[in-house]
Design a protein that fits this description.
The complex is a heterodimer.
Chain A (H helix, E strand, L loop, with lengths): L2 E4 L3 E3 L5 E8 L8 E6 L5 E8 L4 E4 L8 E5 L4 E6 L8 E8 L8 E4 L3 E5 L2
Chain B lengths: L8 E4 L5 E6 L12 E5 L6 E4 L13 E6 L2 E6 L8 E9 L4 E4 L3 E5 L1
Parallel strand pairs in B: 1-9
Antiparallel strand pairs in B: 2-6, 3-4, 3-7, 5-6, 7-8, 7-9
The chains are: A mainly beta, B mainly beta.
Chain lengths: 121, 111
């Protein structure tokens, strides 16, 4: 069974750093892209970026380039989303999702349960 | 503003048919990229509903169907049920942005 399990909710202050995780299991972790999606309170889905665990090839949405860092640890089948200096506007639910295995563009067929990040002074 | 445009909300009675539109441009849907649809029940993660414009993953009822024409796509739901009340999002690839884009989402209310 394919599973993506994300780390727990975080409460942080502005200016602090944060790294949240997404551990995959039940499939070949290195063979499928993993994406991150932001959902601000009461708002829609926003694609942040994506990483291919096999070679760490990473692509960012222009809206998030330079704002976050996506990385991966193949040894633990875990993808990460990191901030160096959080802002109140980073308060949101963050989802990781797997792109269906394919040589072409594919939908996100499995999603993590989400990690709620709250940034408040 | 989202790159893909969806109506913010639709509402229909149980048993009726509803369609949700997703309008893009020549750099995404109109360029031939596939459209995907997701269902998000409040408080839960999105779930893939339609892939490759018209295909349903295993387990998705055939009451859900997708179509695509030109720079737009649509999701149709027939025989509406109370459990269909959710937010629906379309997704495609955008060559100008070199990445995935989502529609703004449509809240479906089953009256």
């Amino acid at each position: 069974e394919v599973r993506l399990v994300q780390s727990g909710a975080e409460v942080k202050k502005p200016g602090e750093s944060l790294k949240i995780s997404c551990q995959g299991s039940g499939y070949s972790f290195t063979s499928s892209w993993i994406g991150w999606v932001r959902q601000m309170p009461g708002k829609g889905l926003e694609w942040m970026g994506i990483i291919y665990p096999g070679d760490s090839d990473t692509r960012y949405s222009p809206s998030f380039q330079g704002q976050v860092t996506i990385s991966v640890d193949k040894s633990t089948s875990t993808a990460y989303l990191q901030w160096n200096s959080l802002k109140a506007s980073d308060t949101a639910m963050y989802y990781c999702a797997r792109e269906a295995p394919s040589t072409l563009l594919s939908p996100f067929d499995y999603w993590g349960q989400g990690t709620l990040v709250t940034v408040s002074s | 503003q989202s790159v893909l445009t969806q109506p913010p909300s639709v509402s229909k009675a149980p048993g009726q048919r509803v369609t949700i539109s997703c309008t893009g441009s020549s750099s995404n849907i109109g360029a031939g990229y596939d459209v995907y649809w997701y269902q998000q029940i409040p408080g839960t993660a999105p779930k893939l509903l339609i892939y490759g414009n018209t295909n349903r993953p295993s387990g998705v009822p055939d009451r859900f169907s997708g179509s695509k024409s030109g720079t737009s796509a649509s999701l149709a739901i027939t025989g509406l049920q109370a459990e269909d009340e959710a937010d629906y999002y379309c997704q495609s690839y955008d060559s100008r942005l070199s990445g995935w884009v989502f529609g703004g989402g449509t809240k479906l209310t089953v009256l």
